[in-house]
Design a protein that fits this description.
This protein is α+β, with helices and mostly antiparallel strands. Strands 1, 2, 5 and 8 form a four-stranded mixed sheet that branches. The chain is elongated.
Length: 197
């Protein structure tokens, strides 16, 4: 009986030794070009091309529990950004930083195409709506452009014009001040500075 119990204990220890330990994998989703973290993203943990775990991040962080050792891919999708895949070897890489890049849009032109940032794309659409006297649509698109850290400073001039058209005069001066703060020296900036003195 003692021999059987000892065999059982040894068998259990051998089985336990063969079961891989589980790890927790966590990480952050950053946008280096904007100096921020993403607010909404879909994050997948994949192994051999199959999704093992999936979650939605609302604060730029993610965490996968009970991950067996081995090679994985962390795939991140966020609106306005390129899909990013990062390789991870668990348990060595248990904390991961995923850096996203804004999507570049191709805009057709007369002699080819031009790559523009998402902010510039929204700004151009806002200008087009403003020129068609669609001021609410222009405001929405200008705000979408402004949400990106790399937005053109001219978005503030456009918002000031939109606010004037919508009768929201109290919002004009703050936009002009933002334009001065964000734009490089130029004649328009100089003229606005003189007017605001």
């Amino acid at each position: 009986m003692i021999r059987s119990a000892m065999d059982l204990v040894i068998s259990l220890l051998l089985v336990a030794a063969q079961i891989p330990s589980q790890s927790t994998v966590s990480g952050r989703i950053a946008v280096p070009s904007e100096g921020t973290f993403v607010s909404v993203a879909r994050v997948q943990l994949q192994r051999l091309g199959q999704t093992i775990q999936e979650q939605v991040s609302f604060d730029g962080t993610f965490q996968f529990r009970n991950v067996a050792p081995g090679p994985y891919a962390v795939v991140v999708q966020a609106p306005g950004y390129e899909i990013r895949t990062v390789s991870a070897d668990i348990p060595i890489d248990w904390e991961i930083l995923v850096e996203l890049q804004p999507i570049k849009r191709e805009v057709a032109g007369g002699s080819g195409s031009l790559t523009v940032s998402v902010a510039e794309y929204h700004y151009a659409r806002a200008v087009a709506q403003f020129e068609k006297a669609r001021f609410e649509d222009a405001r929405k698109l200008a705000h979408e452009a402004h949400e990106h850290r790399n937005h053109p400073a001219d978005v503030h001039l456009l918002l000031a014009k939109i606010y004037l058209q919508l009768g929201e005069e109290g919002s004009v001066i703050p936009q002009l001040r933002l334009y001065i703060a964000e734009s490089k020296p130029n004649p328009v900036r100089k003229r606005i500075e003189e007017l605001l003195r």
